[in-house]
Design a protein that fits this description.
- The protein has about 240 residues and is an all-alpha fold.
- Helices cover about 80% and strands about 0% of the residues.
- It is globular.
- The model has no long low-confidence stretch (mean pLDDT about 80).
- Helix 2 runs antiparallel to helix 3 and helix 8 runs parallel beside helix 13.
- A hairpin with a 2-residue loop joins strand 1 and strand 2.
- A two-stranded antiparallel sheet has the order 1-2.
């Protein structure tokens, strides 16, 4: 029961965070409508441009959504709330899972809004293709959700906002959310090591009706494992300090 009560509290806090809604939902939507609308009949990288750009904006918005759980963690650390929670019956896993669930909740909202906008601009996929893309996007967000927890235990409130904005913008830029920055050569091989690259590629994968390549799955797994290790270390160090 205490786990569900805490989750409800987190959901309410998330909905009240207007800045969070602005950067994870409103900005990607405005940018998509402004750029994809005039180019709805263009094909880009073997994908209809509205579909490609819709996925790029989803990647950007959902990355912000799941990483921003770190902002709530940092704020709670600053206020001494995490110290109080540690002496309550609330399990540690419930604390972190509530943060991740809220991040994914907002990520799904961002997807739904941009899917609707994409459909209005001519995006057409069958049911299987929609589910393939959604599934790949949700899996590809896992390392970013872990990254948010790590940031929450490493950074202070004042520095977390710029860090989240800078990191997500950099991942979005290099991953191709605004259009592929690098399209061939050695640098493309480097970019393919970023999980954000495969988030954007979910649109092309869904059109083929298949799944990510082995390379993509390895990138997501390795990033998740490495960031999980760093997040655990950051949490343990933070616990010992307080």
């Amino acid at each position: 029961m205490i786990e569900l009560t805490y989750l409800r509290y987190e959901v309410l806090r998330t909905w009240r965070n207007r800045r969070f809604l602005l950067f994870s939902l409103v900005f990607p939507l405005i940018l998509f409508l402004a750029i994809a609308g005039p180019n709805k009949h263009v094909t880009f990288d073997h994908v209809p441009f509205p579909l490609y750009y819709m996925t790029g904006m989803i990647a950007w918005g959902t990355m912000v959504a799941v990483i921003s759980s770190g902002a709530r963690i940092a704020a709670e650390r600053n206020a001494g709330w995490t110290r109080q929670l540690r002496i309550t019956p609330l399990p540690t896993w419930s604390y972190f899972s509530a943060k991740i669930v809220c991040g994914y909740m907002m990520a799904l909202l961002s997807m739904a809004v941009l899917f609707a906008a994409g459909t209005s601009e001519g995006v057409r996929l069958d049911t299987v293709q929609w589910f393939v893309m959604i599934g790949l996007l949700l899996v590809g967000l896992v390392p970013f959700a872990v990254m948010g927890i790590m940031f929450g235990h490493l950074l202070k409130v004042d520095s977390l906002g710029p860090a989240i904005g800078g990191v997500t913008s950099l991942f979005a830029l290099l991953g191709g959310s605004y259009g592929p920055l690098i399209r061939s050569g050695f640098l493309l091989s480097i970019v393919k090591f970023l999980p954000s690259y495969w988030l954007v590629q979910a649109s092309k994968t869904s059109l083929r009706g298949g799944a990510w390549s082995l390379e993509a799955w390895l990138v997501i797994v390795v990033w998740t494992l490495v960031l999980s290790f760093l997040a655990v270390r950051a949490y343990e160090r933070d616990t010992k300090r307080v």
